[in-house]
Design goal:
The chain has 20 helices and 15 strands. The chain has 528 residues and is of the alpha/beta class. It folds into 3 domains: 215 residues, Periplasmic binding protein-like II (D-Maltodextrin-Binding Protein, domain 2), CATH 3.40.190.10; 127 residues, Periplasmic binding protein-like II (D-Maltodextrin-Binding Protein, domain 2, 3-Layer(aba) Sandwich), CATH 3.40.190.10; 134 residues, no CATH class. It has a 4-stranded mixed sheet with strand order 3-11-6-12. It has a 3-stranded antiparallel sheet with strand order 8-7-9. A two-stranded parallel ribbon has the order 1-2. Helix 2 links the parallel strand 1 and strand 2. The longest helix has 29 residues.
Length: 528
Amino acid sequence: MKKFLALVCTLCLLLTALPLTALAADDDWVTLNVEMYDRSIAGFNVEDCWQLHYIQENFGNPNHIKINWIPVSRWEEGTILSTRLAGGTAPDICMTYGIDLVQQYIDMGGIMPLDDLLAEYGQELTAFLGDEVLQYGQYDVGNGKEQYYLPARRIVVATQSMFIRKDWLEKLGMEVPTNVEQLYAYLKAAKEQKLGGDNTIPYSSDLYAADPFYGWIYQMDAFLDYSKITEEDWVANFKFHYMLPGAKEALRWMNKFFNEGLVSDYFGIENSKQTDSDRVNGYDGFWVGNWDVAWRMEKSYAQDLAKNVPGASWIACDPFKPEAGTTPHETYTAAGQAIFIPASVDEKVAVAAIKYLNWMCKPESLYALQNGEMGYNYTTVNENNIPTDLKNINDTDDAHKMHATDGAPICNGFYYGADELNYAATAMGFPGYEDVVADSLVISNDGAYEPVSFTRTIQSRIDYGTTIISKEAELLVQVVTCKPEDFDATWDKYTNEILSAGGQQIIDEQRQAYKDGAYRGFYPMAQK
C-alpha cells in the first residue's frame, strides 16, 4: 500500500510538473516584429503569406522566435517610420531607403550599434554582404567607425532608363534616337501625325515630389561641362547636380519641348494618376523611369499597352548622350536600403533580429524566399538551378503570392551566385521581354558611376533638406513651363532661392567633408 501511495504521489508530482515545463518553454520564446513593405497587391496579405509561413517553420520554430511582419506602405514608408521612431513604436527590425533619416537617429542615439552582435551571431550575414557593402552602414564615431545599419546587398545597381515606342519609330521610319536632336525630331513627328490619336503625348512626365531631380540625372550629366568641374566640386554638389556647369542645358531642352506642346500638360502635378492610364492606353511616346519598370507586372505598362494597342511595345534608349565619349550614368551603390535595429529594442530581441537576418543569407533560405515553392511559383529549372518559368505575382494563387525583394530585404535583387547568372536570371523574370529587359540593363550600366555618400552626418542636409526639396520642385516646374525667353532669368531666380534657403550651407558642409576625406564614391571623369 505504501509503495502504491508513493507511486501515486510520484505520478502526481510528474503531472504537476508538466505544465510548468511547458510554461517554461513558452517563456523561452521571443517575439520579433519586422517591418515589411505593403505594395497593395491584390490577394497578397503581408501578415499571412507563404514567405512568412516558410520563415516561421524553418527559422522561427527551431529557434523559439515568433516572427510578425508589420506592414508599411512602400510609398509612405519614410513618413510612417519617422513617426514610429519618434513615438517609440517602431518594429524591432526597420528598413528604409531614407538614409538621411537613419543618419539623424544615429546622431540622436536612437539606433543600436551592431558590431558586437554581428561578431557573435552574424558571420554568414557579414560574409554575404562583404566589406564593400557593409562600409555604407558605418559611421565615424570617436577614432573609429561603428556599424549602425546593414545595407542590403544590391545585385543590380542600374537605376534608370528611357523608354520609347518601338511601333511609333517603325511608323515614322526612324531609328532609335541617340542624341537630343533626334529625340526632338521623333517627338515632333509623333505629335504632328497623332500617333496616339487626339490624346497623343510625345513626352510623358510628371513630378516626383520626394526627389524632384531624381529622374533628370541622366539628362543633366550628359550636358555637364566636365572641363570646369573638379572632384571637389563633384562631391560638394552631391544632390545638386543641377548647379554644376552645363546641367541647365538639359532643362532648356525640356523647356523647348514643353513650349512646343510635346510634354504632358500634367508635368507639374505630383505622381499624377493620369500617367499610368495614358501610358497603357497608347497615348505616350517617351518617358523616363526605373530601368525595368516598363515591363514590371505591378504596373503592367507593357502588358496592358499590348492588350489595348496591338503591336505596341516599349524599348529602352539613351537619347541624352554627350557629343563624344562615354555616356555617364549614375547607378545605385552596391548598398541598397538600410536595415537597422532601434536602440530601444530589448537585447534578447536584438539577438533574434541578427539571427533572423543571418539565417536569411544562407543559400537555401534566400533561394526559397526569392523563388517560392516548386510546383506553385515555378515548375522547371535550368542547368544552374535557376527557375525558367517563375510566375509573376498576379498569376500565382493567393496562398503562394510573394514579393521576392521585400520578403528577403537583405538582398535587393535575385541572387544565384555569379554576376552573369544574376543578370540572366533578372531578365528571365520578365517572360516574353527577356531581350528588351537585357538591353535596358546594358544601357543603364553604360558609363556607370556610383553616387557620392558620406561617412558622417551632413547636419545642414537634415536642417534644410525638406525646404530644399520643396524649392527644387518649384525650380523644375518653373524652368520647364516658363516662356523660352524667360528661361535664364527663371533659372537664376529659383537656384538663388535654393542657395539662400540652406543649399549653400549643404554644399559648403559637403565640400568640407571632401577635404576631410569623410566621403565615399569618386568623380567619374577622373577615370578617363
